[in-house]
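SEVERITY: medium
COMPONENT: batch folding queue
REPORTER: lab tech (J.R.)

DESCRIPTION
The queue accepted two submissions in a row. Attaching both inputs and their returned structure tokens so the on-call engineer can compare them side by side.

ATTACHMENT 1
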Amino acid sequence: MKSEITYWCPKTSSLVAEEIYGEKWLRFSYENFFGNIGLWALVKRAWFSRWYGRKMDKPESKKKIIPFIEKYGLDCSEFLQEPNSFTSFNQFFYRQLKPESRPIFPGEKVVVFPADGRHFLIPDLSQTQYIYAKGQCFELKSLLGCHRLANQFESGSALISRLCPVDYHRFHFPVSGKSGIPKLIYGDLLSVNPIALRKKISIFWQNKRYIHILQNEHLGDMIQLLVGATCVGSVHFTAKEDSWISKGEECGYFSFGGSCVISIFPENKIRFNDQLLDNSSKGYETYFQMGEYLGGFAN
């Protein structure tokens, strides 16, 4: 019997079953022996994602847009462009929204969620007995590929923001400060859906990813890690590198597929959203939109 993927929805104050895009394919690939063979031989390869990405860039992919909107009940009033104005499915996928659709929670000492999605908080990275599945530990050194950074943030906090194909796929800065230059770490392109993560949490540090350091006057350094996934080989940065940015300003976007942003904060610098803390302690992800209240500066 297949296990149901659920997350906490603040609007309904209840657990919601996630409607997974491509669920049959994902379960076959990650839960079936023969699917695992195909996964190793084909799906995690970069060329597969490039091929599928080009397919979603073609004009004929536009016909998928309206059925996708109707099936998943997307709110078109949030879109900056009309649905029929997109020239391909990929252009629709990384669509921009009207600024008023994602208001930024005000306050100089406030941190906001960097993306729409299902969020899970690890409040202390030195105490990670399990995440997503019992017995799977979160390896910070492997994730960052740098002993110095891993030592710097070994007792920090990590927010895992998991984006599904139905979500707004642009990611933003959670605080103001100076934006660094993203560093690419090459890797595979496996799915970051819980179906996959529950089997193998090491997907996070096996996948292609970018490390982006942001300097904030109060926090010091924080890290924004952009994790590629199946059909999301391309992470596009739109913010100016090595420059001062404002909280909530757009950092970049993902091309077609599910994606993940991992925000890593220094130890004891943030008092996190109580609902996020409580749900994460129970093993649940919580849905929040970009710009909503993540926490406040401590002290």
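ATTACHMENT 2
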Amino acid sequence: MSPRAPVERLTLSAPDTEMGRIQQALMKLLRGPKHAQAPGGDGLPTSSRFLFYELVQMGVLDKDSGKVRPDGIVSEALTRLRLLNLIPWDWIIDETRDLIEWPAYPTILAGVLERLDGVRLNPWGAQYPPMILTESRSLAGVLRRIAFEYLVPIAPTNGQVHGFLRTTVGKALQAGREILYFGDLDEVGNDIEANTRTILEEMVGALTWTRLALTIEQVRTYRIPRKMKTDKRDNTRSAAYETEALSQVVIQELLRTALRARLPEPLAKIQAREKTQRAKIRRRLDGM
């Protein structure tokens, strides 16, 4: 058996290459005010899709390069930076994969004590919370932490879908329930939103529908670049504005502001009650 070839030493790509320029831009972007230095920790974790759109806006990448997966080079660059320990692995989330684990404990009491800090009070009282729907998985990925903070359901439709809406989302809704929607502003995105709303309202009746992003006002305010997108259904081209072109921090603040305004009482008061009730129950359980 011939000896194995030596493994090439892992380094950053040369700065005058495309990969090198992308690696340098990603390090600067991730360590800067849009991510690691963002207020409230809202800039991290992020996804390669959001970073791709930020690089497009910076002029580092061309979205319409003709490549089958123009964002593939971003994923490759991120992997190299993480392997070199130049950015932490947990700064980037992969919303396409999940690990499902089942908790188990030596005794029921041990399980109750272990899980006690995770027990939450319903901040919505007798009213139903709004449901967040997003056109893409990447949007759901960066909004999931805020959805958990306010205990509201969230789901990506991931484009045109029928079965998932009928078997899962629609069964969790009631007539009049509010939907907070995030999707692209273009013909395809509008059709996806209309299809989603039509199916759900056929199932449960009229819904209160609020598009939080992307809106024409946000396009103007944040100067979202226009892209020409080809509709694969009929090969026509039209103007498109993509939600991920908004800053991740802006998107998260849009959701947090909307949820804060809809809560029946401030979240801090509910969290204070949670803390008091947990301490009281823990004292009882510790004596068993």
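NOTES FROM REPORTER
The mean pLDDT is 90.
No errors were logged for either attachment.
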